Amino acid sequence: MQQPEGYEVKGKEKLVGRLKKSLYVLKQAPRQWYLKFDKFMSEQGYTICHCDHCVYLKKKNDGNYIILLLYVDDMLVAGSNMQEINVLKIKLANSFAMKDLGAAKQILGMRITRDRKNKN
Question: 107 falls in which pLDDT band (50, 70, 90)?
Answer without folding.
Answer: confident
